[in-house]
Batch of 3 targets.
Target 1
Amino acid sequence: MRAKVLVLIKGLGIGGAERLISEAPPFWDRERFDYRVAYLLPWKDQLVPELRAAGVEVDQIGDGKLGPATFAAVRSHLASLNPDIVHAHLPSTGILARLTSRAPVIYTEHNVVSSYRQPTRLINRITYGRNSRLIAVSQAVADSVRGYPGPDPLVIPNGVSVSVGPDERIAARQELGIDDDKVLIAHVGNIRPHKGHSNLIKAVAAMKGSGARDFLVVSIGGEKHEGDLERIRSEAAAAGIEDAFVALGRREDALSFVGAADLMANPSDHEGLPLAILEAMSLGKPVVATSVGGVPSVIEDRANGLLVPPREPEALAAGLTELIDDTDLRERLGKQAQEDAVARHGLGPMVKEVERVYEDVLAESS
């Protein structure tokens, strides 16, 4: 009999942790495990059709308010489903799973815990002892939870499986109105305080001020709050970079723009292990990234990308300008980035490592 695995997450909008779930079904061992997915926020459902097309049952639980009604709904859902394992992602669903599940809870920590708001961090820590297993997506994430109650973290880095065809690349550049002579820099990150949008805007302004070669930055990511996207666009306009910076908001075809780009920027203040960086690397794009969280575990400065200090737009601008001007360096770093991503960060091997954790937990509970 297959073991029932419930994968539980706050939402299924377009984000890194969410896409790890939506892209995993082709690699799941469905002869051994009976997977179902559940999420809490009804308006974050962009990836639901993808999962259902892969033959995965998906349920939305609760009223979307993360209060008593949702708590009761999660408890009821777990009681009716009676899973053998609950695999929770991100703090709110991790907390709910620990407080409601009779089955062992495996929890994946996707971010360094200092990036969470204080109340979230506190409740997350208090309930940590109820995890049967803890997976951290990078060593930096694992280090951030040292001293928490419960099991020691197991580091299983994120994996990717992506491809972008030539027609998609051409369409992305055509939408932006640029030809192959203009250097395209991609940035993918939902609009959150720690994702570094302002850092990137200041860097672009510095690049324009220094007379950098013709380039365009395309920033892709959804809003957390209504008005976030307009705020970013207004900030770019105030900096005088409207001709060099385009913010598209949430796009399901974000990967097409990464595939069409010459390089990628990651200006974040905090990171666990960004899926966007791994995807860019697997597509052969060199990344200029802030040296935060798990980023240095995948980007080796001047070997497969460039690392710069966080919150220093001048340093970010210098790194981006160097790769704009030095095509040989850009090509060398991009080639090495692709080799490293393929060798170390495949989605299939990542799924197999997670399923080995499931096997261990099931063996203990049998």
Target 2
Amino acid sequence: MRFFYIKGFLSAILLSPGAAFGAHWSYEGAGAPEYWGNLNSEYKQCQTGKNQSPTDIHTTLKTHLQPLQVDYRNAPQSIINNGYTIQINYPKNTENKIIIDNETFYLQQFHFHTPGENTVDGKHYPLEMRLVHKNTDNEIAVVAVMFKKGPLNETIKRLWDIMPTRSDQSHKIDSSLDIGPLLPEDMRYYRFTGSLTTPPCSEGVRWLVLKQPVTFSEKQQKKFMEVMHHANNRPVQTLHGRVIVE
């Protein structure tokens, strides 16, 4: 994801992947990920960038990372099917935040990819949730949560029960929704620098991939796939010498 200049431009990207340009990218056919860099001059980093995401997490550098400070106290505002994913949006004045590098990043939205985009030792998880944050300088920090198959996830169920089935549909979310159960108990993470995983593939994003997965059910994965009609994951990108720390 990205690191960006024009505030209005960034907000459009955050709220609806692809909407800022209206270009016909997709996950299949002529608009598939391998062609993104040729679809629009604004997408050239998808092809030429050297710090692209997602990545495969294998060899890491062990260090003393600061604990991730998370404060999610307010419910999201709406859920939208934007044709690329199911995205849950927060109001502009949200108090939900994380603190990394002694900086505060505010939660803008979260969304899902199936199968998961980042891999661990080459393994795809069946679902990956992305919590997208930005600071006052419009720099981006993404927290990725992996899901593995298991018991039904009650919070996912509440979201899926109101999930729009057609592109560009949206619904309001009940103010009682607590997204805390979508996070693992163990908040240790892998960290690296990367990019947006959708056009324009802008770089400079701080990525934090949580190590411990959360569970959801086979039925819940199938329901998501039925709404999306296809997988919505970008293939893993080359590290080009980047170091992943834990």
Target 3
Amino acid sequence: MKRELVLGLSVLCAAAGAAGCGKKAPPPPAPPPVVVVAPVIQQDVPVYGEWIGTTAGDINAQIRPQITGYLLRRVYDEGSFVRQGQPLFEIDPRQIQAQLQQAEANLGQGLANLAKAERDVARYRPLAEQRAISQQELDNAVSAEQVARAAVVALKAAVDQVKLNLSWTRVTSPIGGIAGAATAQVGDLVTPQSVLATVSRVDPLRVLFNLSEQEYLRYREGGVPGAAQRISQLELVLSDGTVFPHAGRLIFTGREVDVKTGTIGAVGLFPNPGNLLRPGQYAKVRAETSVDRGALLVPQRAVNELQGGYQVAVVGPGDKAEVRNVQVGQRIGSLWVIDRGLHPGERVVVDGFSRAKSGAQVKPVESAAQAAAAASRDAGPAPPASPSGK
């Protein structure tokens, strides 16, 4: 009995040892990484040209005084909108007022001389007819009257001129617009050569930019069909990236091409209600120049920049990933035009590019936007409601 027990224990130990020395089973393979994909879209897209520009007032009036005098006060707020004819500065009028008094006194004396000459002629005329005085004395009296009359005309003109000078002691704006900072201070002696300030009419607003010589030849009337009409409708992109809500138009190009830069100046005119934009701002002028037929577009998130180049991960047959170098074009909203490297209908990775290795198996999942669009297409139009409303 004891011998059988020992033999049974030996068999059990041998079986346990054999089980412990066997190889472990290999772990199951890792599931393929999940990536979000979107299809390559093919459609016609407009091609835009962009030029760097600077805003400028439609009219920029330099405010200069018409007379010489000391500046008494500034009567406008710098940087504010002023109306046409609104006073901007006042010049000391006392010297002009004294000149006006002197001119009016001279006019009074001239009127008195004219009255005396008229009385002389009226008295001498009947005497000459009666031959009580000579004809020469009458002729002298008539000439004196004419001289006195001409002197009165000149003296009246002098009074009018001094009154005009007096009105010019109030310097007004010749146009309505934005008044800049004053360049003369109270107490300065100003002359007709002094620039007191500048007023700019900014509604409409001009935008100055340059076209290359090749662009001018391409967009001119008679160049590419329809290009001249398209470029005449302008958009304005501001320095913060926003698009100005009012479209502009091309009003003219320059007279000559600059031989140093090979460009020709162009001017666009934009409505500017509320005077939002001011002269001197940075602006980017954009215009549709042509249409790219059958362009390929992918979401911008699918494009990855690497050392100056661009790459896209494509999920091909069998859900195998492939990283391709592509040539990109312009951006259209949230999409990017791909000029070379993709084909219509291919699927590109928009999320999970780092997990999509060339030749590796991936698990593609449609993006939420693509899934919603597909569900909308599959559902079709909603059925009409029954008459009972059930």
